[in-house]
Amino acid sequence: MKKYRPNVAAVILSPKYPEKVEVLVAKRNDIDAWQFPQGGIDKGESPKEALFRELKEEIGTDKIEIIAQMPEWLSYDFPKIIAQKMYPYDGQKQKYFLVRLKKDAKINLKTEIPEFDDYKFVSLGSVFKYVKSFKRPVYKKVIEYFKRNGYL
Fold first, then answer.
1. For residue 77, what are the CA distances in angstroms to 40, 46, 81, 95?
2. Would strands 4-13 and 38-40 be described as parallel, antiparallel, or unpaired?
3. Which long-range contacts (CB under 8 A, 24 or more apart) does 85-91 make?
4. Element (H, E) at 140
5. Per-residue pLDDT at 140
6. Could you say which of 3, 6, 31, 65 would form a disulfide bridge with 41 (CB–CB 3.0 to 4.6 Å)?
7. Which one of 1.10.3210.10, 3.40.50.720, 1.50.10.10, 3.90.79.10 gives the CATH number of domain 4-148?
8. Over 90: is that where the pLDDT of 31 sits?
9. How far is Cα 78 from Cα 84, in angstroms, rounded to an integer?
10. For range 19-23, the mean pLDDT
11. DSSP calls for 30-81
12. For the chain, what is the mean pLDDT?
């Protein structure tokens, strides 16, 4: 049976939302891949607590407003090369949050253990020009859910 690592992920809207819909994608510093910020949930931690901690660790700020979250968990399998690094996990099961950066939030990728070396805000339509193929099905479900429910 496959083993999935509990994880949170954030679709981060710029402070210009709802007038302008643009989301943050960040470029990993270890492989050539762009993604939404995400991270593991520690033992005893709620998904919401993990979200705030992970954003602080990955983009240097937790100054966000939660707009919505997906009710169900989504999972994906790691490609072989990543699965070796993430052993004993075969993939991740994720709780997705839609959040907006507060106007005074300052993104700082030079965190204690940097994971990203670049970021940009892109339109929803161009998200898939950046993200790796193994994450596309999950990202598509997430964006469709938030669109269908009137958030995007």
1. 15, 23, 11, 15
2. antiparallel
3. 86/5, 88/3, 89/3, 89/4, 89/5, 90/2, 90/3, 90/4, 91/2, 91/4, 91/5
4. helix 136-148
5. 96
6. 6
7. 3.90.79.10
8. no
9. 9
10. 97
11. SSS-EE--EEEPPTT--HHHHHHHHHHHHHS---EEEEEE-SS-EEEEPPHH
12. 96
Contact, 76 vs 91, CB < 8 A?
yes
Q: Is 122 within 8 Å of 26 (Cβ atoms)?
A: no
Task: Give, for 108, the enclosing helix (H) or strand (E).
Answer: none
Q: How far apart are the C-alpha atoms of 107 and 55, rounded to whole Å?
A: 10
Q: What percent of the chain has pLDDT over 90?
A: 93
| The pLDDT value given to residue 133 | 80
This model's pTM is above 0.90 = yes
What's the one-letter identity of residue 133? S
Q: What is the pLDDT of residues 40-97, one digit of tens each?
A: 999 999 999 999 999 999 999 999 999 999 999 999 999 988 899 899 999 999 999 9
Supply 91's token pair.
């993939």
Q: Which of residues 133 and 42 earns the better pLDDT score?
A: 42
